[in-house]
Structures are given as C-alpha cells and as structure tokens.
Amino acid sequence: MFIKNQSFKDEETLLEQLFDFSLGKPSTAVQHMISEIDKEVSANEAFQKYRATLTDEEDILELDAEERNIRLGEQLMEIYSSFLVSDNKLFGVKDDEQIFLYELDLY
C-alpha cells in the first residue's frame, strides 16, 4: 500500500500500514512490543510446529512477519483510539495526543 497522509481507526488499515512501516524504524515502545511478541511466538508450540512444516525460506519469513504484525496490530488497537500517518511517520492517537510509533525514510 502506498503510504500517504491519513487518519484511520480500523484494524485492517493498521495492518496494511504496519506491513509498510515494518521496513522503517520503530519507536522504542514498538521495539519492546515486537520483542515480547517474538518471545511469545517462539514459545507457542502449535505455531512452531506449523512453521516447521514450511520448507521455503520466503514462506517462513512471510509467516513470521504476518504473525508479528497481527499481534502487534491487536495490541496497538487496545492502546490507541485511532492512528495517523503524517510525513512518513505512523502515530497512535490516545486522548488527542499523538504518540510516535514508526518512521519510514523514503529518500
């Protein structure tokens, strides 16, 4: 999806934006969330068993990224009432305050 200045509240758009912004630099808070998600996924036996059935490295990387983004999206949806993309940055909005989540350098 092309990253453009926009405000949104839905999880589907958030997941699309997380996919795009995962190429960029996350905030410290998001880095911490990702680290915790990675630990949870590593400990999830069912997920690891399914992951082991995949033979293509690209499929494995895609599965890992998708699972991470889904879990991250769920957590962010619980914290923020809406989200904003502005100047190649993703913000969570809570109580009318914009909290920096990700930055993507397109230059």
Describe this structure as you would to a colleague.
With 107 residues, the chain is of the alpha+beta class. It has 4 helices and 5 strands; from the N terminus they run E-H-E-H-H-H-E-E-E. A hairpin with a 2-residue loop joins strand 3 and strand 4. The two termini are 17 Å apart. 15% of the residues are buried.
The largest sheet, given as strand count, sense and whether it forms a barrel, is:
5 strands, antiparallel
Shape: globular
Quaternary structure annotation: single chain
C-alpha end-to-end distance? 17 Å
Which range best describes the helical content: under 10%, 10-25%, 25-40%, 40-55%, 55-70% or over 70%? 55-70%
Let me know the average pLDDT.
Answer: 93
Which H/E pattern describes the elements?
EHEHHHEEE
Instruction: Report strand order across the widest sheet.
Output: 1-3-4-5-2
Structural class: alpha+beta
Name the beta content range.
15-25%
The low-confidence parts are none
Rg, nearest Å: 15 Å
> What is the count of β-strands?
5
Number of helices: 4
Describe the SSE topology:
Elements: E1 6-8, H1 11-21, E2 25-26, H2 28-43, H3 45-53, H4 57-79, E3 82-86, E4 89-94, E5 97-103
Antiparallel strand pairs: 1-3, 2-5, 3-4, 4-5
